[in-house]
Prior knowledge:
Elements: E1 9-12, H1 18-29, E2 33-38, H2 42-53, E3 59-63, H3 72-83, E4 88-91, H4 109-130, E5 139-143, H5 157-177, E6 183-189, H6 195-198, H7 220-231, E7 242-245
Parallel strand pairs: 1-2, 1-4, 2-3, 4-5, 5-6, 6-7
Helix pairs in contact: 1-2, 1-7, 3-4, 4-5
Amino acid sequence: MSKRLAGKVALITGGSRGLGAAIATTLAEQGADVAITYVASAQKAAAVAVALEAKGVRALAIRSDQGDPSSAKPLVDQVISHFGRLDILVNNAALAIQGKRIDDPQIDNAALDQQWRVNVLGVVATIRAAAPVITDGGRIISVGSGLGTRVGFAGTTDYAASKAAIVGYAKGAARDLGPRNITVNVVQPGVMATDMAAGSADKLPPSFMDTHAIGRFATVEEVAAVIAFIAGPDAGYMTGSVVDVNGGFTA
């Protein structure tokens, strides 16, 4: 594989498993040094870091809670201290709390508020912390959801809204950082066979896959490949964009 990201340093939040680990692997295979974050999966994060180093790059696993926006600057500072630079930020860490309508008397408002902290305030804080120090020509990519564009079924109001919010933030940040040739984009995956999906798959309506042009779940590798392209040298004129990788759910 071409080492098109050689010399670059990437930070992927929520990189200990699922899509985050796939993104870290793909960027490392293309030559980037990689830092990943985790909250509770220390052993999984350490194993991912070892696997990345086996590909001939530097890797670092950092415990950082995206639900606490004050942790964003220490996180970015640690990446800069360890690697000397930051070129690529992938905001992947997220919560998916779905299944209850907003008029359900049993709705867990505290959990939904935490989802907003992780999915929106944490992403915003990390972008703000990274913006002053990311290299000119750098890449900021946030992982959204097709539900941020099309809410195809009930019971997902807050999750969908949290993912729509980061689209607006990315578009504004693209304007702010454009003079430095820093691109800011959102990739909206479809449902993937990950731990997060396992927690909400049983809440999907039976006809959910009928809303897709391609009637299957996405693979994490498919989504990671698109993120790697946007992180690379051929996507320098692509900013403020929303890229759907969801089998036509938003078509």
